[in-house]
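Retro notes
What went well: the complex prediction finally ran end to end.
Inputs used:
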Amino acid sequence: MTHDAAASPILKLMNVGKSFRKQVVLKNIHLSVYPGEVTVILGPSGCGKSTLLRCLNGLEFINEGSIRFNELELTPKCPQWQAVRERIGMVFQSYHLFPHMKVIDNILLGPLKVQKRSKDDALAQAEELLERVGLLDKRDAYPRELSGGQQQRIAIVRALCMNPEVMLFDEVTAALDPEMVKEVLEVMLQLARQGMTMIIVTHEMGFARAVADRILFMDKGSIIEQGNPTSFFSEPQTDRAKRFLQQFYEIETWKGREVI
Amino acid sequence: MELLGLELLLQSMPQLVKGLIQTLMIACYSIIFSTIGGIVFGALQTIRLLWLNLLTRFYLELFRSIPILVWLFFVYFGLPLFFNVHLSSFACAVLVLSLWGITEIGEVARGAFQSIARGQSDAGRSIGLRTIQLYRYILFPQALRRMIPPSINVYTRIIKTTSLTVLIGVTEVVKAGQQIIERTGEAILIYGCLFFFYFLLCYPLSVLSRKLEKSII
């Protein structure tokens, strides 16, 4: 999907930098995300991709540069972080469902307490979303009774039920058994097809290629390469990206041991 | 002799029960104030603000390093002397035990809040909850469950510590017992009875705490 040139970006990062104490985690990040676009961020561990996501909804604050979300300038002192967060959904690696609440209450907490929507309206939407991810029968279960894949799908529904304009996914399949990875990725793929604006940090290369409109490759806190998935995966421009992709292909092509 | 002991016990019972009620009243008030204050105190300790942290730390250390008995004396004899504040011995007992209980329950609450994974706050904030709502809906309900067993242990300690209030003149169960002993000289019987009373109060709580600990974790 390509955005038309007239549309204005939903998120615009200019020269964003962040450091913890003296350690620089992000530097010179320039990025525009347009409505309906799916951006996948790849890169080695510790390159700052998760931190970048967390800066977008104020779970971390930036030290330099600026982030614009639609009409809002997001600064650390921005008083309306709550208002921003309810418009940006986030899904985490370890799901972080609220263990003391039933599935349905996990989903309804935001819509009812933050957005003050009517119970009927929110409940109807929650049930419809649960149906879509195939978990309507789990609405009264507690998170501990669910598998990892199910919990992660619930976490996605929890974020979706706020009707966010952007969804952030932070390595959402990294903690899952291989068999459950697929069910979560399918939900995300479906969401992308419906036109949701998504920013995804992942280590699933196949999925990245399938879902992305654009790939960003990060190393040591900077975006060092970006492009469409086809060209990124077939002919990466930087050595660092080449080496990174090499690791993945290599494991996939390992030969079996010879039986003597 | 056997009959005499039983008779004496029956005769002393009203006085002992009166003392026991006093003990329970002090303990109940102190437990209520400790619990409410302790939860707030524990939550305050998890907020990162330098002046607040120094203040809570100071308060905590005051009660950690100074014995309860000294506090009782200070409040009962010191307040009238230095600040011209006169409190009944009952009020002094509740005040000191509550202030101490707040630090104890506060530590339990702080531990409970801090044991909740950081991801819970992240998830709560990412759906737009304000700090108060985050504590109200996410952190507090989870912390409360973890707090119950260790809090009950603090409660039994508060009950036992009420016995110190004899020394500022509260007529609680130990004092009542001593009065009877002074009159009759039956130390073993009466102290045995006190022994039994305290055991009756604290043992069920101790069992409850152990049971809850198993069922929650």
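What we learned: The CA atoms of residues 245 and 251 of chain A lie 10 Å apart.
What to try next: split runs per interface for comparison.
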